[in-house]
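Request: Not sure, any thoughts?
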Amino acid sequence: MKPYRRRASTLTARRTLRRRGAQPKVVALGGGMGLSASLAALRRITGDLTAVVTVADDGGSSGRLREELGVLPPGDLRKALAALCGDDDWGQTWARVIQHRFQSKGEINGHAVGNLLIVALWEQLGDPVQALDLVGRLLGAQGRVLPMSAVPLELQALVKGHDPGRPDDVDTVCGQATVALTPGEVQSVHLVPNDPPAVPEAVAAVLDADWVVVGPGSWFSSVIPHLLVPELLDALAQTKARKVLSLNLAPQPGETEGFSPQRHLEVLGRHAPKLALDVVLADEAAVPDRESLADAAKRLGAAVELAPVAGPDGSAKHDPELLAAAYDRIFRMHGRIGPWR
């Protein structure tokens, strides 16, 4: 391994933050690659960062471990930890290691190293939060990763046209992996159990935050589930933190096929009608009807901020540097005067 070395730009930014006392407390809610994109951006602008991750995944390596061992699905937690790894050699090496998947003809095929590490520590320590904190220290993660609940959850959705042969019928579709790929139109989602307990540390982080960032990510399977955990939703309603909703760059096949940016807000509002937001962040090139988006955001109490946040390759992936710049501007323009100022 190369000698431990931190990028100069990261060092400069962090020294500037320390000089100014600039450490806004930020909590990011989500799951999968959307949350990873948000965390990769946020760790560039604050050293006080907590990820609260959905735990309803039932596909792939996570689903196999969940079914065999009865544990929380570790995959989205692993992705969040990898996103919080630093840009130096240590951080990037560990990010690659925990994301590495075994290729074989046996039982280990497809399992991610990080999934196995996390589950091993869960079994050793008997405490999912303590185990994740320990993995974070090992990786040198620039933030904390928490599950939104300490019990595995099942995502269920009401889907119109899930069976192409019955396009007008509404069926209950079970499982995050199935919901994410449904060919039908998702009407609503709910969790089983329908009143899951939140992890106390996640609730405390939301209540103590300066900013809460929701999204981007799979809308029905990664973003909205946080609003279906009663204690988390109560914390989001009670916190004095400002709340920013980060929209996706494009609709997702299956879950949100054909959705406009404003429709994303409308379905979120239907699932959590009492939730108020402060800012909606969208890529300026992904909003064909700015007035309709502004109207939808206003109904949630939010202003719209448009910024170029897409990557240069034309894919529907956020660029971490551009997204960091957008978050930083929002925190400074819309934030209450806080201790980091």
About this structure: The first strand starts at residue 25 and ends at 30. The two ends are 39 Å apart (CA to CA). Residues 320-334 form the longest helix (15 residues).
